[in-house]
Specification:
Elements (H helix, E strand, L loop, with lengths): L1 H9 L1 H26 L11 E2 L5 E2 L15 H17 L7
Antiparallel strand pairs: 1-2
Helix pairs in contact: 1-2, 2-3
């Protein structure tokens, strides 16, 4: 309800610009954080993207990679960053 009041007061385009700007800033912060640790996680050191011994993440984006593939943690993060970047910079919010 507060968001609806704010949207009426400041305008839909301004809200969309704020959301878009915040998403891009957040993405940039995550990318910079990852870059600080990337040298410690090479394909040899991190051969799978996982969360402990029981969980392994596989990549599929429904576009380039339709069927889930096994990949190293750095490759997984690269796929993810590219996918998010395409979504952020090709989304309708950026048309305002």
């Amino acid at each position: 309800m507060c968001l609806e009041v704010d949207r009426r007061r400041i305008g839909e385009a301004t809200v969309n610009r704020l959301i878009s700007s915040t998403a891009v800033d957040f993405f940039d912060q995550i990318r910079m954080l990852y870059e600080t640790i990337a040298e410690f996680c090479t394909p040899q050191d991190c051969p799978v993207m996982g969360a402990g011994p029981k969980y392994e993440y596989m990549w599929a984006d429904g576009g380039k990679v339709k069927k889930a593939i096994r990949c190293s943690a750095p490759d997984y993060v690269d796929y993810l960053m590219e996918w998010v970047q395409v979504g952020l910079f090709c989304c309708p919010f950026n048309s305002y």
